């Protein structure tokens, strides 16, 4: 049997979910036997999201144009897309900037002009620094999501209980405090 | 004393006339989810989580404010109710700014608990991200309106148990918010006795002790059942 093609993606989040993923400790060794890691900031050097991915954990909300481009690509090329952690599921802390006038311009002005100590200046580097989008959103507001795994971050136990059934062709049971408590 | 006989989730039960459905369910050992209702305070039916189905009626009734009647047949866990309850909780999350990971009540929050109870793993409704304020003018406590679900427990506990009536509800609909005094900063309201009952009654992290950080708030909501029983039935121990 071919190995499961497994990916993880890091969008607008703090990487805490990926740290929690690494907290799977020795299960990572079992996982490595069952999957081929085809794209991941913590498990693979490839820079382009490949075709025919079986399972992808997506950490982070959608906050800029890079996130936007990647999430559409991920959805197109992935069978089972998992919203991985509170930022992916609720937009969480990255979305707190939405309360600031709900616009990219509002948050940039606040951060780079009004609160600047010296040399107030808006960042602008087309092609290098991705432009912010006006409203930070959870992933499922833009593309269909197959499984939601809340948590900030989800514990290693929750991550294992979510992905282990998938490796054996079963669906995880996303219910109860251990699996779906936010925060 | 007259007695009413009824059925809750196929369980026969007899209760005193004037009992609410929620009280009857508690006696029958049936758990109905709730957020705004707190034992010891007057029920108001604000959160709509405790809606139940009654045979022969085409509308759902809030169990905390509905008195039982003879021959009532009540269902508390139908698929319709479960779906509505989950939608209701999703709407509450989408209405305010509930960021569990940075909240004082993380892990000790009734809204968070209810989300788990109704099986909410995400909100199907887009978040509103309203622009709300934080009032830290009181020397001991703070109120973060982002986390407020307008259950009015603070309003009722301050009025009915403490007798100070510092809190009330201002505006209407989506613009409604909890107001202190005559729409003054909390710290300027002379009526406030700084008793902290609102902190204990608040189901979320909206009202908190200053200086508490993420996950540190552990409210004592059950204490109002004791305080009311002490006053009305002279039961002095808890």
Can you summarize this structure?
The complex is a heterodimer of chains A (183) and B (238). Chain A is an alpha/beta fold and 183 residues long.
What does this structure look like?
The complex is a heterodimer of chains A (183) and B (238). Chain A has helices spanning 16-22, 27-34, 65-77, 86-90, 104-114, 156-167, 177-180; strands spanning 4-10, 35-39, 53-59, 62-64, 78-84, 132-137, 147-149. Chain A has 183 residues and is of the alpha/beta class. Chain A contains seven helices and seven strands. Chain A is globular and about 55 Å long. In chain A, 33% of the residues lie in helices and 21% in strands. Helices cover 24% and strands 16% of the residues of chain B. Chain B has six helices and ten strands; from the N terminus they run E-E-H-E-E-E-H-H-E-E-H-E-E-H-E-H. In chain B, the strands form three sheets. Chain B has a five-stranded mixed β-sheet with strand order 2-1-5-3-4, covered by helices on one side. In chain B, strand 8 and strand 9 (177-180) form a beta hairpin. The longest helix of chain B is centred in the middle third of the chain and has 17 residues, at 79-95. The two termini of chain B are 28 Å apart. The model of chain B has no long low-confidence stretch (mean pLDDT 96). Chain A binds chain B through residues 83, 86, 89-93, 95-96, 98-99, 101-102, 135, 137-138, 140-141, 145, 148-150, 152, 174-177, 179-183, and chain B through 93, 97, 99-103, 106-107, 112, 115-116, 119-123, 126-127, 129-132, 146.
Uncertain segments of chain B are none
Total count of helical runs of at least 4 residues of chain A: 7
Taken from the alpha-carbon principal axes, the silhouette of chain B is globular
Instruction: Provide the spatial order of strands within the biggest beta sheet of chain A.
Output: 2-1-3-5-7
Instruction: Report the β-strand fraction of chain B as a percent range.
Output: 15-25%
Oligomer: heterodimer
What is the C-alpha radius of gyration of chain B, as a whole number of Å?
19 Å
Q: What shape does the CA trace of chain A take?
A: globular
Tally of helical runs of chain B: 6
Q: Biggest sheet of chain B: strands side by side, in what order?
A: 2-1-5-3-4
Query: What is the end-to-end distance of chain A?
Result: 38 Å
Q: Structural class of the secondary structure composition of chain A?
A: alpha/beta
Q: Give the % helix of chain A.
A: 25-40%
Mean pLDDT of chain B: 96
Mean pLDDT of chain A: 96
């Amino acid at each position: 049997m071919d190995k499961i093609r497994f990916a993880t993606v890091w969008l607008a989040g703090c990487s805490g979910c990926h740290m929690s993923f690494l907290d799977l400790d020795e299960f990572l060794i079992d996982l490595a036997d069952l999957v081929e890691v085809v794209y991941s900031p913590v498990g693979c050097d490839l820079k382009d999201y490949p075709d025919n991915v079986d399972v992808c954990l997506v950490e982070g909300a959608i906050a800029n144009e890079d996130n936007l481009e990647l999430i559409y690509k991920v959805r197109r090329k992935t069978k089972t897309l998992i919203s991985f952690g509170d930022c992916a599921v609720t937009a969480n802390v990255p979305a707190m900037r939405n309360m600031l006038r709900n616009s990219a311009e509002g948050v940039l002005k606040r951060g780079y002009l009004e609160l600047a100590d010296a040399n107030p200046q808006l960042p602008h580097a087309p092609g290098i620094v991705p432009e912010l989008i006006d409203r930070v959103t959870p992933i499922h507001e833009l593309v269909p999501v197959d499984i939601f795994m809340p948590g900030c971050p989800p514990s290693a136990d929750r991550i294992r209980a979510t992905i282990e059934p998938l490796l054996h062709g079963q669906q995880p049971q996303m219910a109860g405090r251990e699996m779906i408590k936010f925060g | 004393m007259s007695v009413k006989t009824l059925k809750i989730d196929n369980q026969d039960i007899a209760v005193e006339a004037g009992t609410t459905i929620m009280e009857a369910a508690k006696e029958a050992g049936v758990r109905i989810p709730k957020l705004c209702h707190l034992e010891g305070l007057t029920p108001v039916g604000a959160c709509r989580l405790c809606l139940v189905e009654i045979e022969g009626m085409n509308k759902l009734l809030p169990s905390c404010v509905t008195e039982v009647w003879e021959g009532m047949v009540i269902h508390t866990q139908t698929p319709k109710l479960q779906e509505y309850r989950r939608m209701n909780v999703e709407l509450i999350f989408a209405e305010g700014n509930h960021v569990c990971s940075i909240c004082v009540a993380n892990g000790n929050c009734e809204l968070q608990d209810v989300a788990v109870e109704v099986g909410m793993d995400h909100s199907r409704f887009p978040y509103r991200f309203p622009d709300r304020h934080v009032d830290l003018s009181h020397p001991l406590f703070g109120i973060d309106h982002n986390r407020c679900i307008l259950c009015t427990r603070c309003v009722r506990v301050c009025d009915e148990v403490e007798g100070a009536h510092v809190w009330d509800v201002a505006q209407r609909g989506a613009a409604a918010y909890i107001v202190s005094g005559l729409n003054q900063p909390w710290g300027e309201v002379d009526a406030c006795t700084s008793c902290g009952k609102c902190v204990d009654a608040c189901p979320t992290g909206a009202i908190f002790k200053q200086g508490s950080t993420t996950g540190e708030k552990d409210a004592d909501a059950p204490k109002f059942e004791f305080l009311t029983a002490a006053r009305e039935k002279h039961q002095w121990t808890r």
